[in-house]
């Protein structure tokens, strides 16, 4: 109420008489009474409420968003309001509530354009990878379906298959040979294991005889002879073990590496043969159908696939033939050497010919482990 009175007083017109004197108005008395009333209120409040009044004025005072300009004239009061919230500068934002300047950190049009371009490029790359994976899965599924269909047809005698009688006979001989060589390898390992245990027993027996020779004076010579004999047998046995270990290692390499590698190539060849027959059968079925534009397009695509798998089949077939030839030559060479070593070593050992046994190992460049060594390394791997 006080604010309204003061505002009215500030904007009130002052009448002037014709002779230049100011007239007496009834409103002067009311203004004087209002001033006296405001003075009495200020006296009652006192200094104790000064801080609170200041805080209330700061809180409930005029909004900084607006600047009120009041002017008086003959036409009465007039107010003009200017909003400061609309005042902005380059890179500056005026917060109307807190009257602070906040820098604008938005992106320019060029940066927005580059960001959108990079996101579009990443999206296209992801989409391309997804499409490629889908196409790969689709091709794999179609190829698996055709091969499964061909396999079932061959098994039930309804489909035809490409047959190379000579090559398949060689493959069957190789598989049979591998089975027999695996048996030889298994028995040779068993022989080595048993013979190793026998050599260790002879070594322990020789040590026991030597100890008893020292503790039994009346049987010293007899225990001494037997101790020497067991030590000699143990030494010859270790030499024979070196020869047998070399034999086992060579057979293991031949069976589990050379033959296995050839059989892996044969497996790839058989898969290629199945795919070739599957696409060949598909092409034959399409060729027996109608000859419209759609069918001709499918026939051309099937012809291309048939040609691709035919080349793959012929290439793997050639690889199998070459590997079988080299495997046979390598097998003959390796087995000739190993069988000769095995025969000479066994014969020399059981004949008691130590010199011939050592000569056999030198002939095949076999180096023995030092005496007292542990089990052969190939047994440790088992």
Automatic annotation (TrEMBL):
Gene3D superfamilies tied to this protein: Arfaptin homology (AH) domain/BAR domain (1.20.1270.60)
Lineage top rank: taxon: Eukaryota
Q: Which UniProt keywords apply?
A: Coiled coil, Golgi apparatus, Membrane, Phosphoprotein
One GO term (biological process): intracellular protein transport
Q: Which Pfam families match?
A: Arfaptin
Which InterPro entries does the record match to this protein?
AH/BAR_dom_sf, AH_dom, Arfaptin_fam
Drop me one GO molecular function for this one.
phosphatidylinositol-4-phosphate binding
Q: Where is this region: Disordered?
A: 1-26
- One annotated Gene Ontology cellular component of this protein: trans-Golgi network membrane
- Give the residues annotated as coiled coil: 299-330
Does this UniProt record's set of keywords contain Lyase? Answer: no
| Localization (cell) | Golgi apparatus membrane; Golgi apparatus, trans-Golgi network
Where is it chiefly localized?
Golgi
Is Disulfide bond among the key words of this record? no
Q: AH domain: which residues?
A: 162-362
PANTHER family, alphabetized:
ARFAPTIN-2, ARFAPTIN-RELATED
Protein name in the entry: Arfaptin-2b isoform X1
What is the organism of origin for this protein? Betta splendens (Siamese fighting fish)
Gene name in the database record: arfip2b
């Amino acid at each position: 109420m006080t604010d309204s009175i003061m505002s009215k007083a500030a904007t009130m017109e002052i009448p002037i008489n014709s002779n230049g004197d100011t007239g007496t108005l009834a409103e002067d008395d009311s203004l004087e009474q209002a001033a006296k009333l405001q003075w009495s209120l200020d006296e009652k409040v006192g200094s104790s409420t000064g801080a609170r009044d200041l805080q209330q004025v700061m809180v409930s005072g005029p909004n900084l968003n607006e600047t009120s300009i009041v002017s008086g004239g003959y036409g009465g009061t007039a107010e003009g309001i200017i909003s400061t919230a609309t005042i902005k500068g380059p890179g500056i934002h005026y917060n109307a509530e807190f009257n602070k300047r906040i820098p604008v950190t938005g992106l320019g049009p060029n940066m927005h354009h580059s960001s959108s371009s990079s996101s579009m490029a990443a999206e296209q790359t992801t989409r391309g990878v997804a499409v490629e994976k889908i196409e790969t899965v689709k091709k794999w599924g179609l190829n698996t379906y055709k091969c499964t269909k061909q396999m079932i047809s061959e098994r039930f005698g309804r489909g035809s298959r490409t047959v190379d009688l000579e090559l398949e006979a060689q493959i069957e001989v190789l598989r049979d040979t591998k089975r027999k060589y695996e048996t030889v390898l298994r028995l040779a390992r068993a022989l080595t294991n048993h013979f190793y245990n026998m050599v260790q027993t002879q070594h322990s027996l020789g040590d026991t005889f030597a100890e008893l020779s020292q503790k039994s004076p009346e049987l010293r010579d007899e225990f001494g002879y037997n101790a020497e004999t067991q030590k000699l047998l143990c030494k010859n046995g270790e030499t024979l073990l070196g020869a047998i270990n070399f034999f086992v290692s060579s057979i293991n390499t031949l069976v589990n590496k050379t033959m296995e590698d050839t059989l892996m190539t044969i497996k790839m060849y058989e898969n290629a043969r199945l795919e070739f027959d599957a696409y060949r059968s598909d092409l034959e079925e399409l060729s027996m159908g109608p000859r419209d534009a759609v069918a001709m397009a499918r026939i051309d695509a099937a012809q291309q696939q048939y040609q691709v798998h035919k080349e793959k089949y012929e290439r793997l077939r050639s690889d199998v033939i070459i590997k079988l030839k080299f495997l046979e030559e390598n097998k003959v060479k390796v087995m000739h050497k190993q069988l000769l070593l095995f025969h000479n070593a066994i014969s020399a050992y059981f004949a008691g010919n130590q010199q011939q046994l050592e000569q056999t190992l030198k002939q095949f460049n076999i180096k023995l482990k030092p005496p007292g060594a542990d089990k052969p390394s190939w047994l440790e791997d088992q």
